[in-house]
Amino acid sequence: MSAEKFEKSKTIELRKKHVGPSCKIFFSHDPIKIVQAKGQYMYDEKGQCYLDCINNVAHVGHCHPDVVKAAAQQMELLNTNSRFLHDNLVFYAQRLQATLPEKLSVCYFVNSGSEANDLALRLARQYSGHKDIITLENAYHGHVSSLIDISPYKFHQLSDAEQNQFVHVAPSPDVYRGKYRADYSDPATAYANEVKAIIDTVHKKGGKIAAFIAESLQSCGGQVIPPVGYFQQVAKHVHKAGGLFIADEVQVGFGRVGTNFWAFQLQGEDFVPDIVTMGKPIGNGHPMSCVVTTREVAEAFMSSGMEYFNTFGGNPVSCAIGLAVLDVIVKEDLQGNALRVGQYLTNLLEKQKEKHPLIGDIRGCGLFVGVELVKDRLKLTPATAEAQEVIYKLKEQHILLSADGPHRNVLKFKPPMCFTMEDADLVVEKIDLILTGLYHIIAGTVLIAQMNEATCLV
Amino acid sequence: MSAEKFEKSKTIELRKKHVGPSCKIFFSHDPIKIVQAKGQYMYDEKGQCYLDCINNVAHVGHCHPDVVKAAAQQMELLNTNSRFLHDNLVFYAQRLQATLPEKLSVCYFVNSGSEANDLALRLARQYSGHKDIITLENAYHGHVSSLIDISPYKFHQLSDAEQNQFVHVAPSPDVYRGKYRADYSDPATAYANEVKAIIDTVHKKGGKIAAFIAESLQSCGGQVIPPVGYFQQVAKHVHKAGGLFIADEVQVGFGRVGTNFWAFQLQGEDFVPDIVTMGKPIGNGHPMSCVVTTREVAEAFMSSGMEYFNTFGGNPVSCAIGLAVLDVIVKEDLQGNALRVGQYLTNLLEKQKEKHPLIGDIRGCGLFVGVELVKDRLKLTPATAEAQEVIYKLKEQHILLSADGPHRNVLKFKPPMCFTMEDADLVVEKIDLILTGLYHIIAGTVLIAQMNEATCLV
Lengths: 458, 458
Prior knowledge:
2 copies of one chain form a homodimer.
Chain A: H1 8-18, E1 34-38, E2 41-44, E3 49-52, H2 65-77, H3 87-97, E4 106-110, H4 113-128, E5 132-136, H5 145-148, H6 152-155, E6 167-170, H7 187-204, E7 209-215, H8 230-240, E8 244-248, E9 275-278, E10 289-293, H9 295-302, H10 316-331, H11 334-355, E11 359-365, E12 368-373, H12 384-396, E13 399-400, E14 402-404, E15 410-413, H13 421-438, H14 448-451
Parallel strand pairs in A: 3-13, 5-6, 5-7, 7-8, 8-9
Antiparallel strand pairs in A: 1-2, 2-3, 4-10, 9-10, 11-12, 12-15, 14-15
Helix pairs in contact in A: 2-10, 3-10, 4-9, 7-8, 11-13, 12-13
């Protein structure tokens, strides 16, 4: 198929006719048609280039030739299900395991982050024999029914009656805007004690905790970095209640945080989750994902007698792609690049914070960075409309960035891992210009239509 | 990666170590390692060829060059999410729509049959504002939590307490072994009345029906072909209760039944479901699937205000693959081939039925055929061990077939659609020889281990 088959207006018309209206589009009043991409750049139908600061799925760079080659070669040879023995499956499982603490040794291959998190809940419930789940405020864990139940980011739109009685929401460990802030003596303990309090309440009502689930760094929830030591203490409380700790690495895994391969490792070597779920970047865009757990949990899951079969999960093509992604991360030192460029970007943004009162907080690890915009640095009044204005003005400059968080006022950086210092210079320079110009704009000119764009780029 | 990286024993060892033990393998005491496949043939690490009678996922033939080429070309160009405009998405939606009745016009692209059926339930519940689901005895609709709830094939292993109170099970419309058989005056009405009775009971208890869901032809449930007129009557009862009819075409769609492109069309032109879910064959092995519904249902889903976003669903590569599959079906007249070869195969099997008392029933449409083995044609005593023996003996002859159904006594044919009359001759000839030999085997020699193999090849 050629890069463009229809005029853009026809594409829009057909989309309106044949694609579910709940499936939103970026910049809906003037959407972008992308026909090609390479590395950290995307190209529209006119050949105009956009710098991509948001597509963490294209982890090793859009259309990486090594990944494309691995996929094509394996597709020519064999693509079948995991009920047949195949070396790609076991070699890939072995390679993934090698990136994790030793006790996380058993893999389940599935097709999406949603399938991974759903399976993680099943594993935890089967292992513990319990039903209740603790999730974090503003969390997003996926789009299937069981995950909307544990995603306040989604279910806050529902009535109380529609919310699942087995799900309990703990405060987001956000030391900027949350209940316990950076000036609090020990926010890690304070937030963990909140989880303990929920467990106690559940127990009093006769419930039992199956799992605590959290993204290792909250993404849609506003690029939140939990204080070090929080996960260890939560795990202690949850284990005592007979439950498991599920670390959702769907958005943040595979070296993005720079110092470590997995974001949960930022908490320290003494923290090991019971279940890790992976997704998005794992296949550089190919639909695949994985759940890794301990032998003990896997054996308990098997003891139910119910087989687990996933038609596409772990097929030789998906595994070949997964292996190629791991190889490119090492070969091109993308984790190191994330560390260096992430640090450079954060430093540039810190300087902007000194200059622009609108920037309330800069937080991040590697190439996972949030810039929280506030109208008042003491009251932390969310600068939601301003964040949208920045996103729209950047788009005019051919830079793709997004805003998220409960107040949709956090600019989110999660670019392909080949992002360079020059790219960082460019985007920060443009943000500087836009923020400078913003002081001259009357707040009312920001369109409501634009505010509605501030959806999560999960 | 070369075709084989490890010795087979090492592959088995690594699999035991790193892959969830709930993930079963074919012929577990002597599994097959497949390294290559083409058309309807699979090859092991020694180059031995197997005739594939079971992999409906490899719909247009394993590793079809047109599909591989379309995938590779699009992977080189662009693979990103559906928040950007892209022609492959809208063109594919348009092409899929053209195969369906006009009112089924709105598509949601997802990654697996499980994601599709989960979304179908969400659509039905949002549209109707109701919660209760009616499903069929022995049904299998997927592996995520919400679908195990509606899959008696899976949840019969659970205790009553673990079963979902909003799920109600109607008798399988099986005219061979079910409640109303071929000799019953009007089994379609009788089975539909059973659904009506469930609706009445639900209403009496204060519940409300969101949907009735059924595979258009039951696959794992034992290759069951519902009597014509059953779906129309069920739809009438369900609509009257404010619910929707979901036709699950994950196993049986895309021309497999020969006379029609969709299996629900076997019921007649006067039947149109409200939601159709697709999967397995849609991408010839690539992880993708689709839900199609009416404008009315789609608008109701949007009115909740909740966005639907699926990271990988509807990406340009998946859509390019989906388009290539549709093209090959037409170009190679695979629907016509399914009709002709399916009829030929069924005729050959009918002759076997005359010869072998063990064959109780032959049923099928196109290349979806079931052979039910019974020890007694009057009592219909399931010949479970014998079915397993046939499967194992066929494997020794390098033919891959499977057995399923609640009694695991139904031989299931669902080969790649390029299956030929010569292939049919070969497999039926081998079955003839095996069945002839079986009369001389003492029942006790059939290993329990082999009986445990009789899992669903979903």
